[in-house]
Amino acid sequence: MTDGPLTVATRNPGKIREIRKILKGLPFKIQAVDEVFSGPGPVEKALTFAENAEAKAVFYSNKIPGLVVADDSGLEVDSLGGAPGVFSARFSRPRPTDEKNIKKLLHLMAGVPAEKRGARFVAAIALARHGKVIKVIEGTVRGRILTAPRGFNGFGYDPVFYYARFKKTFAELRPAEKNEVSHRGRALKRLRQYLQKRLAAGLPLFSR
Question: How many folded domains does the chain comprise?
Fold first, then answer.
């Protein structure tokens, strides 16, 4: 075990499950932020996923010892000019839910033909310690938006995000399948490789 824990700085249970699964086996005690911090989180006001992830990682790493992993992710739809983007989780505010977000998305895309329903998921993962950002990694995956939800796995926009390679929505994939190809899965695998490489070389994890 290394010096200190690795805290997953999200309160989204779906993200926590995915992050824990992909980082499992690393020599850290992986813990969710709610296990060690009960105060409010930072206000997400940046215009990019990377900036939001960095802000969250810095905020929590100033309050929690050890390494902190924060993510910001969302859906960018071609026909909507990249929306909902960084507002993906808050798309149907003032009281957003996954179901309401999907309903709003499908309403805005009503009548858009299949060939123009392209979209991509984007994830930015930031690693920080003692208020300093160590590494920022991004992952993306392209698909298209269906006209109705399919599947019951996953969370967020997964039920309407169709991935052509598997001929399924992300909500129809098994967790292992989704982690293999998803935006967050790709970013987290690169983060895992980064951590493993530095640990194997005996390099510090608190400087870029």
Answer: 1
3-class DSSP assignment, residue 149: coil
- Is 107 inside a domain boundary? yes
User: Could you tell me if residue 207 is inside a domain?
Assistant: no
**Considering the chain, what is the average pLDDT of its residues?**
93
> pLDDT tens for residues 97-124?
999 999 999 999 999 999 999 999 999 9
Please identify every residue annotated as catalytic: 72
State the DSSP code for 90.
G
pTM of the complete model: 0.89
How far separated are the first and last CA of the chain, in Å rounded?
Answer: 22
Question: Does 203 or 48 have the greater pLDDT score?
Answer: 48
Tracing tokens 């499992």 back to the chain, one arrives at 24
Cβ proximity of 14 and 183 under 8 Å:
no
Considering the domain boundaries, does residue 81 fall inside one? yes
Give the domain CATH number at 165. 3.90.950.10
Q: Which residues of 171-206 are buried (b: 16+ CB within 10 A; e: fewer)?
A: bbbeeebbbebbbbbbbbbebbebbeeeeeeeeebe
Residue 46 lies in a domain: yes
Q: Which helix (H) or strand (E) holds 199?
A: helix 183-201
- Residue by residue, DSSP assigns 33-72 as GGGT--S-------SSHHHHHHHHHHHHHTTSSSEEEEEE
For 77, the domain range is 6-201
φ, ψ at 124 (rounded to 5°):
-120, 130
